[in-house]
Specification:
About 70% of the residues lie in helices and about 5% in strands. It has 21 helices and 3 strands. It folds into 4 domains: about 55 residues; about 90 residues, Up-down Bundle (Receptor-associated Protein); about 70 residues, no CATH class; about 110 residues, Type II secretion system (T2SS), domain F (Receptor-associated Protein). A hairpin with a 5-residue loop joins strand 1 and strand 2. Strands 2-1-3 form a 3-stranded antiparallel β-sheet. The model has no long low-confidence stretch (mean pLDDT about 85).
Length: about 400
């Protein structure tokens, strides 16, 4: 339930509105970040009003996660208690969902639950891979370091995603405009063109027939315009679920450019996680098992699970990597060489961090070039769309002479 908290400063009378998604007024006050020199009045927002507010208020995102974990790490590093550390983050996050989650965790910790158990109750905000890292940090007594690492890694991910989104703005605008032009033409130009061609009994090419079919469908069943719009909304809304399926992830690895982005992203996350766990003195086999759990791509999950099984039967890290290097694609052999170097020099965590840094730098470079990669594809799509429209509309015109003056050659 969404709650509106109106906070008033007792000294200045200044007012501030805060929205918290939670079930009780007590938790709403915690989530609002109210301080000791402020008072609060709480209003329940229900029904249609709640739906509208949820659509317009900030959604939980990577930026909130970065702020939360970086702030939490900063407090824990200064030996501030966990409950107080959580309370200090309430004013830093922007979404009502995150504020409500913070309030829920403060309540859970106040009744004696562990931080990892409190986080586990909110899988939509803290995914399974983050929970694995938090559990490992608690067991190793390195929770502040783990939170710092999570905040740093999520910040890099957020920066890369932001660049990717910026690169997709231009093609998205082009595609939307192209679809809009087709829809407008289907309601205006194409019906007039159809009357002319029908009256003259002109044989129509396949492209023109396809355009006429689209036009007739839209004119007589205008509700069909909503089908692609609803489809795109559902697709993007469920993108996280779709991209997490085994078949979709396998498809990503077969697509040019996309496969490079996927492999480097999965490798950077996995090797950074493993380095962080080893720095926290987690046992190697356990660290590999947790890294497998934290890997978002099924091939890397399988890779680290197999590494753990090799370690459990007594093989060295280098031997295990050599056996399973095929899971890592083209970079498999070079990574094995780095692992061998780490084994000889005793600098395992440094080498793993170096691997993760290299992948993140390459990802950053690819993200900067996304617009240059997508631009020719967008131009090609636009050219095909324009070419199809020109062909579909003008191809029958060349046979109009025979239809109007059938006796002349």
């Amino acid at each position: 339930m969404l709650k509106k908290v109106l906070i008033t400063n007792i000294h200045t009378g200044g007012r501030h509105e805060s929205y918290v998604e939670t079930d009780t007024h007590e938790k709403a006050i915690i989530g609002s970040g109210m301080s000791g020199n402020e008072t609060a009045t709480i209003e329940d927002i229900v029904g249609l009003d709640e739906t509208v507010h949820k659509m317009t208020l900030p959604k939980e995102n990577l930026e909130d996660r970065v702020v939360f974990f970086n702030g939490l790490a900063r407090c824990l590093e200064r030996n501030i208690g966990m409950i107080k550390s959580l309370q200090l983050q309430a004013n830093r996050v922007k979404s009502p969902k995150y504020r409500g989650v913070i309030a829920e965790m403060v309540y859970d910790l106040s009744i004696g639950e562990k931080f990892s158990d409190a986080i586990a109750k909110h899988p939509s905000v803290f995914p399974k891979e983050l929970l694995s890292l938090i559990i490992a940090g608690e067991e190793a007594g390195q929770l502040s370091a783990v939170c710092r690492r999570i905040g740093t890694a999520q910040k890099k991910t957020a920066r890369i995603i932001k660049k990717l989104k910026a690169g997709l703005i231009y093609p998205a605008i082009v595609i939307v405009l192209a679809v809009t032009v087709v829809i407008i033409m289907s309601f205006t130009l194409v019906p007039a063109m159809q009357k002319l061609y029908t009256s003259l009994n002109v044989a129509l090419p396949m492209g023109t027939k396809a355009l006429l079919f689209v036009s007739n469908t839209l004119v007589h069943q205008p509700w069909t315009v909503a089908i692609p719009i609803v489809g795109m909304i559902l697709f993007f809304k469920n993108w996280g679920r779709i991209s997490s399926t085994r078949s979709a992830q396998s498809l990503f690895l077969k697509l040019p450019v996309i496969s490079t982005l996927v492999r480097k992203s999965a490798s950077a996350v996995s090797f950074r996680c493993l380095a962080m766990l080893l720095e926290a003195n987690v046992r190697l086999s356990s660290a590999l098992a947790i890294t497998a759990e934290a890997s978002w791509h099924w091939q890397y999950k399988e890779f680290f699970e197999r590494l753990a099984s090799h370690i459990n039967v007594g093989r060295t890290m280098h031997e295990s990597f050599l056996i399973e290097s095929h899971w890592l694609g083209e970079d498999g052999r070079s990574i094995c060489g780095l692992i061998e170097l780490a084994s000889e020099t005793g600098a395992g965590t440094e080498m793993l961090n170096e691997i993760a840094d290299d992948y993140e730098d390459e990802l950053d470079g690819l993200a900067n070039q996304v617009d240059k990669i997508i631009e020719p594809i967008t131009i090609m799509f636009l050219g095909l769309m324009v070419g199809f429209l020109v062909y579909a509309i003008y191809a029958p015109i060349f046979s109009l002479g025979d239809a109007i003056l059938p006796g002349r050659k």
